């Protein structure tokens, strides 16, 4: 016996699946590797660590590109997690959509600011 719920769409649940799970793990692994690389550079630096040292670490073009990739990965990692939280726990659709839009705007703003600071070094 089939049950007909009508034509009204029900918007529930997060996007569970292999793609989201895998993207979370890949972006997390990338951030861990970047953190270890940065930690290694800091530990191998002699003398006091000031602005000049930090600017020197991020002065190389390959480090700027790697940092840019990690910033984008971090923003995507946060987006997938927050989207799932909003979809799982916020039931009113208007509030869920508002929070998702706010999250996207906030993440794009933070990523843009981080990239601006990175390329200003």
Brief rundown of the structure:
The protein has 121 residues and is mainly α. It has helices at 18-43, 51-57, 61-89, 93-120. It has one domain (18-120): 3 helical TM bundles of succinate and fumarate reductases (Up-down Bundle).
Characterise this structure.
With 121 residues, the chain is an all-alpha fold. The protein has a single domain, classed as Fumarate reductase/succinate dehydrogenase, transmembrane subunit (3 helical TM bundles of succinate and fumarate reductases). Helices cover 74% and strands 0% of the residues. The longest helix has 29 residues, at 61-89.
Q: Which descriptor suits the 3D outline?
A: elongated
The biggest beta sheet is recorded as: none
Which blocks of ≥5 consecutive residues have pLDDT under 50?
none
CATH superfamily: Fumarate reductase/succinate dehydrogenase, transmembrane subunit
The CATH topology is 3 helical TM bundles of succinate and fumarate reductases
Count of structural domains: 1
CATH architecture: Up-down Bundle
Helix content: over 70%
* Rounded average pLDDT: 89
| Strand composition percent | under 5%
Q: How many helices?
A: 4
Number of extended strands: 0
Order of helices and strands: HHHH
CATH class: Mainly Alpha
Gyration radius from CA atoms, angstroms: 20 Å
Query: Would you tell me the structural class of the helices and strands?
Result: mainly alpha
- For the record, give the distance between the C-alpha atoms at the N and C termini, rounded to a whole number: 67 Å
